[in-house]
Design a protein that fits this description.
By secondary structure, the protein is of the alpha+beta class. The chain has six helices and twelve strands.
């Protein structure tokens, strides 16, 4: 069978894992983790095996939801299956369990398995990123560069940036660098890799849609007929400039 590729930076998402705490310098910080979305699993399965050569099924075993991903092996001329169980989410237990089971089954196939070897990610936070002691809604960090060694089972390079493209965590060939705290007088510059304009706009649109409870991929499909990854910079910019009109159009299409 074909080899599952490693995740690209755009495949990896970042979310907060811990509550805000004080670092050794007495400044606010939080621990973050890396994860993948179900869309990433679907895309990689399509690209590696072909859309018609894999399938998924779900079943309840002892009250828990399991997902099975089966891939057709042309050499053996049979379906090969791998299964795992999902954990319900707080927001939508049933949907969360289904998505989690699918992603876990995908990990069994090797999709994003390297994320288990991710380093401990602690990022110092700016005061304007906090509200009542918690991280503000809309504060996001993005993977801008990643390099993983399959044989050593370790990350050789990992860079996380904020919306402005400033490096906030770096582990790499220059050695592990503690995250730097950006301030107005001392901004942290990303001298390793620039964050593209499309990426910045994508984050802004994603944040606004999330605040309105709208899934980014559903929005792009309803409004433009493509997945979000297929939207171009012009479409994303237009969605931001005419946000209210676009949101109203999406909701009218979703209601049909």
């Amino acid at each position: 069978m074909k080899e599952i590729p490693l995740l690209k930076p755009s495949d990896i998402e970042v979310r907060v894992q811990s509550k805000v705490f004080k670092n050794r310098a007495g400044e606010p910080a939080a621990r973050f983790l890396l994860y993948k979305s179900a869309r990433t699993d679907m895309r990689i399965l399509d690209e590696v095996f072909g859309p018609m050569n894999w399938k998924r099924s779900q079943e309840v075993i002892n009250g828990a939801l399991y997902c099975t991903i089966s891939v057709y092996d042309p050499e053996k001329k049979e379906w090969v299956s791998k299964q795992d169980v999902g954990v319900p989410s707080k927001q939508d237990p049933q949907k969360g369990a289904a998505s989690d089971a699918f992603k876990r089954a995908g990990t069994n196939w090797g999709i994003g398995r390297e994320l288990y070897d991710a380093p401990d990610i602690i990022i110092d936070l700016n005061m304007n990123e906090l509200y009542n002691g918690n991280i503000r809604t809309g504060v996001r960090f993005i993977v801008s560069d990643v390099e993983y060694d399959r044989e050593a089972h370790e990350f050789k390079r990992l860079i996380l940036v904020d919306k402005q493209g400033q490096v906030r965590f770096m582990q790499g060939k220059r050695g592990t660098t503690p995250q730097k705290r950006a301030t107005q007088n001392n901004p942290v510059k990303n001298d390793s890799q620039q964050f593209s304009e499309k990426d910045k706009l994508s984050v802004q649109l994603g944040d606004r849609l999330a605040q309105d409870g709208v899934d980014l991929n559903e929005y792009s499909k309803k409004c433009f007929g493509v997945s979000f990854s297929e939207m171009n910079e012009k479409q994303i910019r237009s969605s931001l400039e005419r946000y209210d009109a676009g949101l109203a159009y999406y909701r009218s299409k979703a209601a049909v």
